[in-house]
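ok trying this again, last paste got cut off
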Amino acid sequence: MSAAPSPRRRGGRNLVAGAAAMVAALVVAAPAEAARPCKEVDRDALAAQEAGDLETLKRFYTEAHHPEAGCDPLFLVSFGSDLALAHIDRFVALNNQDGNLQAHIHVLEEARNYGEPWQLLATLAGAQAELGNHELAASYYQQTIQELQVVSRSADPNSPVMANLPNEEKFDEMVRSMAQSALLAQTFSPPARSRSSDAYGLFVEAYRGYVVKAVPVPVQFHFDSTRFTGKGEQVAAYLLDYLLNEDLVYVKLVGHTDPKGDEYYNLGLSERRAAALRDYLYAGGYDGTIDVEGRGETEPFQPVDPSKFANDIEARHQLDRRVELVRNPDG
């Protein structure tokens, strides 16, 4: 897997000549206990960053937090994000050497001690999905989407930060990856609410002009039944909370099943399951209009990379079993 785009504090400058040698000299010349002015720490940290020297960069990060360095809090946050991004570079380099994701994912987890830029969250999500840890992957994808919403709403449109954000095609792929992991997960944990008023996590509505109209809701039911599983109850409660906090007066729930069993029976089962979710939402206090429809096995889920499920029939069937939320279906 490849690293996500990594905006730097200095706008992504290329490696300066002699940066590695400069860093080596600085490590000798600047004891860890020395409290240097923040400007000097910043200069030397940039050289370490450009040289790809993660360990030295971590030492400069610690030095920047010395009370006598006088570093601005916003600078420290930015430094932490840069350090988190440098961990992504280290992780990708190690994984490219041996392809052992499990052995190196601790590098990404360590990066969270310094900051959680969207690139780190997205890389963690992709790595956990590759490892089959779909609960963690779904959680990280939701956090990624949430952070992208916040950044895209708050950053200067002409800034390097905006230039490094995913385009609509990449964002759509993230949204579909999030839905895929949520469907495959055995449990569901909603993210904390966003710092903005945006819809959050699985129910993201828009991003930089891109509108997400339909959401594959990972609600699960007991076999041949309209009763929620434990995960189904978690997801239904999350959907109810979303609808109670958003200005949506009309939605549609579309049920889907896997292809096992009789096609006509599956058509009816998918509609009954969508109706069961509707009844739960009404009982919970939602007062908008909910239409229900069943499509049975006629519209199987389309994975982001179908080849990953070519030999996993049960996973494909689990992706098929879902209820789709369609917002403003006549809009």
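PB: full thing came through this time. The chain has twelve helices and six strands.
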